[in-house]
Amino acid sequence: MTNTGKDALERPLVTFSLLAYNQEKYIRKAVEGAFAQTYSPLEIILSDDCSTDSTFSIIQEMVADYHGRHRVQVIRNEKNLGLIGHINKVLSTVKTDWVVLAAGDDVSLDHRCQEIVERVRREPDLKGLFSGYIECDELLCPIRTVTPLQASNIGALQVCRGGGYVFPGATFAIHQDCFTLFGPLRPRILAEDWVLPLRAAVLGKIGFLKSSLVKKRGLSESLTRVNKRIMGDILPKNSCPEEIYENLATIRRAHRSGEISLLKSKTLAITIQLHWNIRCCECANEPVGTLRLLRGLASSFILMRLRDTIRLSENCLTLFLNKSRARSQEKCKNL
């Protein structure tokens, strides 16, 4: 499938990437959602991470019976790579500018890719795009509709202020620069949706579609849910400087117990530490200092050639935190 000239500008080739692992109960609906996409030209990647059940057999069967207009590529890993390794492998094969991400237990509505392309064509500065979703039970019966609260596009500053997490990764579409310019995701990070949005925000802007474009199953065994529970224990609960730094030690222990070494998970570590630093400055009523710090860090991301979002030295961050702590404690004493 070749798309050149004016057509390539108006209707660029897009990749729809569906990642699956041991999801034989759900994969059929997920693949049907991929095949049903109304947008064209579309390349569909169906990738299985060495499932031990019949997930891959179902994918093979459905691809053999498919005679639609989309190009379909099937990948099966020889050994299980895990979530992050799987994402790295798939993204390394993508040749298009935009990638629509999908999970093997969710279902994309047929107009998902169409709405995404229409939006990114109107706003070329976007490097990431979230949409709303319909939360469903295991049988895909709707429970509620979840819509992004953001009314406008956001950048690195807003992502950092939120601690790194923006919206569920199952609804995310990213520009391939988020992978090619930064390199592979580090294998020990908790979840890709804590890292890819920050990369996108450093490169450009993140946009939001109010439309619900994904039926997302709320499964208790979901890896994302497990990771979010871990993060719920990690993120700070208080805004007093002393308590923040008490939590800092707790976080370090949590990183070790969760096998997410701060040294090997720079992106996640930095977004969390920025979150604490913001709280510390806000306690001291220093929003201007906070903004300056975050803008400076965002500039540093670019100056460092955008490698690994942020191979900033932990010592440098600690210096920022210690200075903010000292100022905050001094101000708090005078309250």
TrEMBL record:
<protein>
    <submittedName>
        <fullName>Putative glycosyltransferase EpsE</fullName>
        <ecNumber>2.4.-.-</ecNumber>
    </submittedName>
</protein>
<dbReference type="InterPro" id="IPR050834">
    <property type="entry name" value="Glycosyltransf_2"/>
</dbReference>
<keyword id="KW-0808">Transferase</keyword>
<feature type="domain" description="Glycosyltransferase 2-like">
    <location>
        <begin position="20"/>
        <end position="125"/>
    </location>
</feature>
<dbReference type="GO" id="GO:0016757">
    <property type="term" value="F:glycosyltransferase activity"/>
</dbReference>
<keyword id="KW-0328">Glycosyltransferase</keyword>
<dbReference type="InterPro" id="IPR001173">
    <property type="entry name" value="Glyco_trans_2-like"/>
</dbReference>
<dbReference type="Pfam" id="PF00535">
    <property type="entry name" value="Glycos_transf_2"/>
</dbReference>
<dbReference type="InterPro" id="IPR029044">
    <property type="entry name" value="Nucleotide-diphossugar_trans"/>
</dbReference>
